[in-house]
Every structure is written in structure tokens, then in C-alpha cells.
Amino acid sequence: MQFETYPYAIFEGKIVPLEKAQISIMTNAFHYGVGIYGGIKVFDTPSGPGIFRLDDHIERMAKSVKILGFRYEFDAARIKEDILNLARKNEIKPQTYIRPIIYRSDTRISPAIEGDYSLAVYMLDMPPYYNYENGIRVNISSWQRNSSKAIPPRTKATGGYINSALAIDEAKKLGFDSAIMLDQEGNVSEGAVMNLFLADNGKLITPSSDSDILEGITRKTIIEIAKAAKIPVEERKVSKDELYSAGEVFFCGTATDITWCSQIDDQTLSKTRGPITVRIEEKFAELPIKRPELFTGVK
Ligand code: PMP
Fold first, then answer.
1. Residue 18 backbone phi and psi in degrees, to 5
2. Which residues have a Cβ under 8 Å from the Cβ of 132 and sit 6 or more positions away?
3. Which residue, 196, 199, 197, 178, is CA-closest to 248?
4. Does the C-beta of 226 come closer than 6 Å to ligand 1?
């Protein structure tokens, strides 16, 4: 998908025009996927554009760097300041998508973790890109989510996303919008690039963090919203057959918000979004008013 970009980026420690932020073809991360990234969204709040859960996103990046052992001196306060400075320089608006990446930046040729690392950040204008009216149609992928014993999905490692790319490619070739991935045990993990919830009998169910998921920040927010609204939430292993019998299924993620699912494989789930999905969507939309502390102002 191609979106409008903002004119400035962070590259090698400085704010530069986006077209000057260029890496060598010899860059180690380009060959071996040794990097981790984030995806952060800007909302319209009563006090102007607000970056949603910026500290949580930075903390997830810090954890990823630690898990993978990157030789990168992570300074959360500095990264936050850099992102805010870039946001001001770009004069960003609501619906901006912020993409930070920490990658192995040296040009030595070997798939090693030891090496030099750098932070880069760029920004896009990202309007909603799924058809929310009709829901999305997904298949259950024949590709399994990569195991945390191989490439931990919780780290948002760049190289791990070949797994999502394969699932999306298969889904598109079969005429679906996206895919659901099962973990190595055959339980439901998540969407190719989104977390997933089922709603049934007045409660929400979502695959637990030991189901090889990325622990999404939207997922965490939905769990908080549901608990506040007294909707019971179960975080547990979810078997594939539960998907077909669930009253409602929806996906969630920074880029895709909350997206209801109308069809899985050849089974129609429903023709309209279900009542729990609608309730969660409404509560999610109220966050800029109800929970202003979740947004970092850019001014
Ligand atoms: N799972 C995967 C594999 C993802 O790439 C994403 C998008 N970052 C998500 C879930 C949703 O996570 P978040 O709500 O933090 O954007």
C-alpha cells in the first residue's frame, strides 16, 4: 500500500529530508532482517494531534532490543524526544502513522546480532484502508505463525515479517482480504498483521500471549476497555473450531483500528457487525475524550 509521506525523517541521528534518508545495499539488516520496528498512530484529540500510547510503543521496542540482544544502547527518553521533534518538524495531523525502526546498520556480511545499530523514523498519512462497512473476509492460512522458539513474534522483528507476507500473499491469491494464522500447536494465534478477538455469549476471548502473538497495544487497550465496561475477557488458547462457531470475530491493530470479520474460509460469520464489536468500537472512539492521558500532544 502506498501512502503520502511527510517530508522529514530521522536518519543516522539527525532530522533530514526523507529523500536523503538512504541506506547502502550492503546494509546488514537489508540482507538478514536484523531489525525491529514499531507502528504508532496519531489521533484527533480536543487538544490537537495526540500520539497514542507512545510510551508503550517505545517500551515494546526496548523489550524487543533486549530479547534479541541487539547491541543498541536504548534510551527511551531520547527516542521519545526524537519522535516528538520530528512530529513537530513535519507538522503532523491526525491519522499520521509513525514508523520507527532500529536496524543493524553496518555493512559486514554475516547474519550476526553483534554489529552497529541505528534508529530511523519516518511518517505517513494513513487513512483507514479496509472496507469497514462489509467487514473483512479472511482465510485460515496454510502458513503457521513463526514460533517464539524460532523468531519471537513478540519482538516485531523485521525479518519475522516474511511470515506475515506469505500469509497475506496466499490470502490475496485465494481472493480474501487477509489471513488468520495458527500457532505451531494448531491453535489460533492472530491475524497476519493484527490481533484477534472472538465474542460469544456476552464475553470476549483472545489468544493468550503464549499463542505466538505480537502483544498488540490495541489489544491491550481493548482488554482495558472491556474490563471497564464489565465485559468479561478470557485470554487463553483458542482452538480453530471456536472461530467458526463464534458469534463475532474482529481484528485490531494500530494501522487497522478495529475491523470486524464477515467471513472465515467458506463460512459466513455474519452480515453485519455484532453488538459487542459495536460497543468496543464506540468505546475505542471515545478514548481521546475519556482517557486523554493515553495521548502525547505534539505541540
Ligand atoms: N500482530 C502483528 C503481527 C502486527 O504486526 C501488529 C501490528 N503492529 C499487531 C498484531 C497489532 O499490534 P498493535 O496494536 O500494537 O499495532
1. -50, -40
2. 259, 260
3. 199
4. no
